[in-house]
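chain below, 249 aa
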Amino acid sequence: MSTTPTRAFSAFALEPFPVIAPGDDLASAITGVLTDQDVALQDGDILVVASKVVSIAEKRYVDLASVTPAPEALELSARTGKPAEIVHLILSESTEHTVAGERGPIIARHHLGHQLTSAGVDRAGANGAWLLPVDPDASARALRDAITTACGVTIAVVIGDSDGRADRRGATVISIGAAGISPLRVTNHSEPGGRTKSQEETMTDLIAASAGLILGQRGRGVPVAVLRGIAYEPSDEGVAAILHGANRL
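prediction:
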């Protein structure tokens, strides 16, 4: 975890990865793949884990048959064309929302503080949906601790979520949880007159986006990637520390 600027890094997927069912031990699944593939983690490695697989392991599934849409959800459903039950979940998971364009997407501020498309609610076939982990930073810490203990190395964990943006088409990957790594990178630049300008960068977002080339339905279709060779500052602040108006759990 040197503070020397990163000049190059490598990334690889943990695959083949087993199908995770609700209640499964995700850390054990990760270490099992490492063993099966004879892959040894190194000090300073960063594991980027897709939020959906964390939600599955943490049983964050909602049966849409159990959802009774509120009047506001019915109205917004008619406007956007989204199922009323999904809209109800979006409103339940968020503190405020806007609709980008005539029919969406719905951009909502999740009660954790993240501004996300559909408040991070992810369809699960025709009859269900997955919600975000209750506390993604705590999920990252639990994974980091379990994997560190099992493998005997010091690592960091970033939980990434695929999300779109209101101003453009397409999706990227952002961080919603982290452990063992500072969520911000601060760089200093000298300016004329001897002044120094500091710049904050969302380090965990940069890492999540890099891993997005491998992760999830838009990459190789695997839920865990390892990034190696990145310089970062160790920290357990978590992503919540950099959110405006975050609800710290």
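The chain is about 25% helix and 30% strand. The helical segments are 26-36, 51-57, 71-80, 84-93, 136-151, 203-211.
thats it, cya
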